[in-house]
């Protein structure tokens, strides 16, 4: 899907401020996996509102949104006519590529699944579409501000 | 009066795109049975032989039913049941 903002399908356009916030969260929670959402207006494909979530598993190999926190965050998004444009989580010992578990849980065809790896000196920041079990990596375009 | 069931994007192909549908029942299990009668195919996406599928969260009003009585949780007219896909994954 590409909204009026997205450059073309197969790309995530995201502000540097949001990328920095996601990477900072991943580093802060290392060696546990970090996770969260960037909400944006429905149909816009534009990530805007950064929401750091608790990893209920507090684990270096697994993450799960706390179900109560997720309920509140999803209701807030509903009230604001927003959708989860980005769902991110970190891998702390492996590369930023969706695992079998990631793929089996992925259920939002219009969401950019962002994977950050804190396993290396330089963090990896990569984005994917995951639809019906099929993973497609997409380009990430980092912008200073949205036009 | 009935119970409103809020359906996530991923399951709206079973509800003709509706974000919320009505259903009846005295327990969550009965409610899901009624949903299945109205929207065939939905039940299998919510439950398996072991109970609620781990890929979905089901809430009665604002409480996760796993912290209530699971499928045996009593429901009543005026309640809202919300289904959300669980968000989870990991390195393996």
TrEMBL record, chain B:
Cite the Pfam families for this sequence: ThiS
Concerning Gene3D superfamilies, the annotation shows: 3.10.20.30
Q: Which domain of life is it from?
A: Bacteria
What's the name of the protein?
Answer: Molybdopterin synthase sulfur carrier subunit
Q: Which organism is it from?
A: Planotetraspora mira
């Amino acid at each position: 899907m590409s909204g009026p903002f997205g450059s073309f399908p197969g790309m995530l356009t995201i502000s540097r401020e949001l990328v920095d916030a996601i990477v900072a969260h991943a580093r802060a929670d290392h060696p546990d996996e970090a996770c969260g959402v960037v909400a944006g207006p429905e149909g816009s494909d534009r990530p805007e509102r950064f929401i750091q979530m608790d990893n209920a598993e507090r684990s270096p190999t697994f993450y799960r949104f706390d179900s109560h926190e997720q309920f509140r965050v999803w209701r807030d998004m509903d009230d604001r006519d927003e959708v989860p444009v980005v769902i991110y989580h970190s891998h702390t010992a492996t590369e930023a590529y969706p695992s079998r578990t990631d793929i089996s849980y992925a259920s939002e065809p219009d969401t950019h699944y962002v994977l950050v790896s804190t396993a290396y000196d330089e963090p990896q920041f990569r984005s994917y579409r995951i639809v019906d079990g099929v993973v497609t990596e997409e380009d990430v375009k980092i912008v200073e501000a949205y036009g | 009066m009935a119970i409103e069931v809020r359906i996530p994007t991923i399951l709206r192909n079973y509800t003709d795109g509706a974000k919320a549908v009505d259903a009846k029942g005295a327990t969550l299990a009965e409610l899901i049975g009624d949903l299945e009668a109205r929207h065939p195919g939905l039940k299998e996406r919510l439950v398996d032989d072991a109970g609620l599928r781990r890929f979905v969260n089901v809430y009665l009003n604002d409480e996760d039913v796993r912290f209530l009585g699971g499928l045996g949780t009593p429901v009543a007219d005026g309640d809202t049941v919300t289904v959300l896909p669980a968000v989870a994954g990991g390195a393996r």
